[in-house]
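Data availability (excerpt). The following record was deposited with the supplementary files.
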Amino acid sequence: MKLTTAQALVGWLVAQRTVLLDGSEAPLFPGVFAIFGHGNVLGLGTALSERSDELPVWRGHNEQGMALAAVGFAKATHRRQVGVATSSIGPGALNMVTAAGVAHANRLPLLLLPGDTFVNRAPDPVLQQVESFGDGTATVNDAFRPVSRWFDRIVRPEQLIATLPQVARVLTDPADCGPVTLALPQDVQAETFDFPDTLFEPVTHHPPRPRPDRTAVAAVAEALRGARRPLLVLGGGVRYSGATTRARAFAEAHGVPITETTAGRTLVPHDHPLYAGPLGITGSASANELAAEADLVLAVGTRLQDFTTASWSLFAPDVRLVTINTARFDAVKHGALPLVADADEALAELAELVAPWHVEREWTARAGAVRARWDDYVDGLRAPSAGLPTYAQVVGVVNEVSEPGDYVMTASGGLPGELIGGWRAPGALESGMDVEYGFSCMGYEIAGAWGAAMARSSGVVTTLLGDGSYLMLNSELFSAAFAGHGFVAVVCDNDGYAVIDRLQRGNGAPAFNNMYADARSRQPDTPRVDFASHAASLGCAVLVADDLEGLRAAYTQARAHARGGRVAVVVIHTHPSAWTDAGAWWEVGVPEHSTYPEVDDAREALDKAKSDQVRYLGRP
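Predicted structure:
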């Protein structure tokens, strides 16, 4: 077929299919987010217009926002479908680099198609081109290289034939999954080539399920049989594998307490007798208590980042760390005994090898006992009190009103700690939570919710965010409202970057430049943002709550709007310094010397904590 590069690329996108976790077949690329400019409107834009009935195009209003929406879409489909985002060259392209970082850190598929400068160089320097003084081949799109799992610049149409299989490989492989960037020079987009018909034949991608090596699985089984106090840690890989039922059954058969990482949250019903709570700094004191006592930690589908491990201070120094992961890169971290395999396949084989091994009843019973104490603590935080509502109380109301099958989100600031630590999952497999705490990207809360609302056919998507995140990136409220993808955004206004103010003051520094009261202004009477009026101007249904009962009524009404396809924003003024505390340590860069004595004290505490951390990391 004689096609332009852009037509061939779009034709290939249309031909790709995928198998969802329920076994049904669907498009691998169900749509494209686009902001057109001179670098993509004629080539790729024309090609997308020609196939718009088969490949819907959704109009974004900020390149970072729409690319983050594509990330949120992929997360909500458990990595089985891929969002695509295209921009013009220059600033439009660079705006998407942050979204690529989010996808890379969270191991999520994302296809980015930024326009690029002319290969023929006849009009150099073209509008929006940044010229390199030392490399004639460099463009701003090279900034995508460190945050892409596959990067290519298409300088000849026929290069698509070689690169597109690699694109599909990265986007559908559980080990290599991450962002792909295809930089598309605008002259090459419009050039033609006689492409083979086979490039456009429908292909259904079945994500591979690698089985474990026999020697490795035997070694892990032996380690498990020798454990007296094992702890099962479930990460996002369990969700992407569809191994939730298998993981629960494994724990139940052998009496192993269960905890979850940030990405694994809501995999286990809150009232499950083996559930100890979420793990880590933003998790629960209950899970952290068991982690400190465990003699073996079986971590499934997690990269064990610092918030999960409390900067590697959480586990006992002599703990045996065992990992199951499709990516060897993650499986071998910190001297773990690795099992490189699909989570579902690995747990199935392990269950056969370790039977009839069972943990001592006293250790099994510890899970429910410690979680009961954590539940009492959270109940106390949720109880009505005088003054402004707290984050914990807001999360409590949203949790109580939500239903099985709903999807809840957040990304940055203080809300991840409240949502991860305090949310009580109903246990429905279709329920979900997306706390973007791999990259902790302010602004993901709204954009990601747009993508999640597009992806999910049932339940209500609710995103919780602070005033700082709202101001960082709110344009996709209008994108979602315009497109008709309804969700609820609960905006908690606490007058600044409150969680960073907590970190700052908690380590001895004075309050400075985080809360509005501590930031420089030449105005004697500083303005306040009217979030309600702003959201209304973007086409959203807006509800304002003054207290918890008002929040319950407003959130209930907002859910009805979301079910009807409207974006609903609930605004509530919240307490600036009340937090849920899991009692875990986090390593941050406290100065070795300061003019503030309190900072010196904080550094002394840091050095003391690091002595335990180094002792653990130094294990053979």
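Summary of structural features: The chain has a mean pLDDT of 96.
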